[in-house]
Design a protein that fits this description.
By secondary structure, the protein is an alpha/beta fold. The chain has one domain (5-187): Rossmann fold (3-Layer(aba) Sandwich), CATH 3.40.50. It has five helices and eight strands. The longest helix has 15 residues, at 34-48.
């Protein structure tokens, strides 16, 4: 069965302008075209008339890039929502906590999710884990997400690529199926 026959919802997690500022997030980011890939996937979803949910993060801290008064809160230009596409605002890592995402999915009988967004090891991972735990058939698109380098507990530096691919490895097969966008398009 082709994936599109399962009426999969596209979940775009935090594809916001805040993530364009690499210095703010502590350094180098991998997959710098992730938002562009998200935009290409979004266009395909629209052409196929499949369900779309835009998730955005918010913070009450005035200096946060995700504060509603800061430009970083805005959606990335590659994935601007249309008026008829649901926008869900969250204030924690999971798109399911404190939001109506699960209720909206369940009300539409959606059981299959395709997840994209930023960052791989934070909100994308948390949302993907919860989706799997809630019983959704879940697909995470590896080239439509990105991570930043991180400093470990002993001061060691982990590259953005290492963080990205380790996170994908931790999610693979237990919480989600990991595909790249080429595989996604071939399965639609």
């Amino acid at each position: 069965m082709a994936l599109k026959e399962k009426n999969p919802a596209l979940i775009l997690v935090d594809v916001q302008k805040a993530f364009l500022d690499e210095d703010y997030w502590g350094g180098t980011r991998n997959n710098k075209n992730a938002e562009s890939v998200c935009g290409t996937i979004l266009e395909k979803w629209r052409k196929l008339n499949l369900p779309i949910f835009h998730i955005r993060h918010t913070s009450t801290h005035p200096e946060s890039k995700f504060n509603v008064n800061n430009m970083g809160f805005e959606f990335n230009d590659a994935v601007l929502p249309l008026d008829n596409e649901p926008v869900i605002t969250k204030n924690v890592n999971s798109a399911f906590i404190g939001t109506t995402l699960q209720e909206q999915l369940d009300a539409k009988g959606i059981a299959t999710l395709v997840i994209v967004g930023v960052t791989t090891n934070h909100c994308v991972s948390t949302t993907t884990r919860m989706a799997g735990n809630l019983g959704y058939e879940t697909y995470l698109i590896s080239d439509a997400t990105a991570a930043f380098e991180r400093i470990g507990i002993n001061g060691e530096k982990y590259s953005a690529e290492t963080i990205h691919y380790t996170t994908l490895a931790n999610l693979k097969d237990e919480f989600t199926t990991v595909w790249d966008s080429e595989k996604l398009f071939s399965e639609l």
